[in-house]
Amino acid sequence: QKEVEQNSGPLSVPEGAIASLNCTYSDRGSQSFFWYRQYSGKSPELIMFIYSNGDKEDGRFTAQLNKASQYVSLLIRDSQPSDSATYLCAEGEGAQKLVFGQGTRLTINP
Amino acid sequence: DAGVIQSPRHEVTEMGQEVTLRCKPISGHDYLFWYRQTMMRGLELLIYFNNNVPIDDSGMPEDRFSAKMPNASFSTLKIQPSEPRDSAVYFCASSFGVSGELFFGEGSRLTVL
């Protein structure tokens, strides 16, 4: 049974600071990792995916993958109040059978 | 494109009643997924289809749950009989290929009294 673990938070970060979200996964053979953002009362939306060890940057977002440690993280630079949401980490075989973590609730304080 | 369309948005029913949730995926997408989200268990995959064929239903809780996809533009998730523990938000999502980018509908919030 694949498992994805996240700290449920809440994580509180001042506006303009870096928010760091972390995720660990149980299946050493996992290849694909995804970060979804879910605003309160809304549906999840994909913000980043990463397949290879190392960093992947997209605007203010950086995903980091360390397969040896079975660890995925998401960094949000210059945090904005609009970044306040629950962030869901997921692993899977492409689009198939994504296994989601419980999510980390992030609050950006103005 | 209108995105993934789900109905109803909210459903309140009594224990023992039949519940049918509906989903229209994004046109051209070949994968369709049904997820359930609760505070306790998070987002769980119930079943997914590829080209209208059910591929994996191992997440379906029990025989009270069934899902169909009669054509590429429509899917249903049925619960019969419903129980209070089925109360959750049910999301339908679709994707094209195996990109990992799921497009979620707005969800159907089910409350079973």
Q: What is the overall number of helices of chain B?
A: 0
Low-confidence stretches of chain B: none
Number of DSSP strand runs of chain A = 11
Number of strands of chain B: 11
* Straight-line distance between termini of chain A: 40 Å
- Give the helix level of chain A as a range of percent: under 10%
Rg measurement of chain A, Å:
13 Å
Order of helical and strand elements of chain B = EEEEEEEEEEE
Q: Kindly report the average pLDDT value of chain B.
A: 95
Summarize the largest interface: chains and residue counts. A-B, 22 and 20 residues
Can you tell me the overall shape of chain B? globular
Largest sheet of chain A: 6 strands, mixed
The biggest sheet of chain B amounts to: 7 strands, mixed
Question: What amount of the residues of chain B lies in strands?
Answer: over 45%
How would you spell out the order of helices and strands of chain A?
Answer: EEEEEEEEEEE
Whole-number mean pLDDT of chain A: 92
The percentage of residues in β strands of chain A lies in: over 45%
Structural class of chain A: mainly beta
Q: Would you mind describing this structure in some detail?
A:
The complex is a heterodimer of chains A (110) and B (113). Chain A is mainly beta and 110 residues long. Helices cover 0% and strands 58% of the residues of chain A. Chain A contains no helices and eleven strands. Chain A has strands spanning 4-6, 11-14, 19-25, 32-38, 45-50, 54-58, 61-66, 71-76, 85-93, 96-100, 104-109. In chain A, strands 2, 4, 5, 9, 10 and 11 form a six-stranded mixed sheet that branches. In chain A, strands 1-3-8-7-6 form a five-stranded antiparallel sheet, with no helix packed on it. In chain A, a hairpin with a 6-residue loop joins strand 4 (32-38) and strand 5. Chain A is globular and about 40 Å long. The N and C termini of chain A lie far apart (40 Å). With 113 residues, chain B is mainly β. Chain B is 0% helix and 55% strand. In chain B, the strands form two sheets. In chain B, strands 2, 4, 5, 6, 9, 10 and 11 form a seven-stranded mixed sheet that branches. In chain B, strands 1-3-8-7 form a four-stranded antiparallel sheet, with no helix packed on it. In chain B, a hairpin with a 7-residue loop joins strand 9 and strand 10 (103-104). The relative contact order of chain B is 0.33. The mean pLDDT of chain B is 95. The A-B interface holds A 32, 34, 36, 42-46, 49, 88, 92-103 and B 31, 42-45, 48, 55-56, 91, 95, 97-102, 104-107.
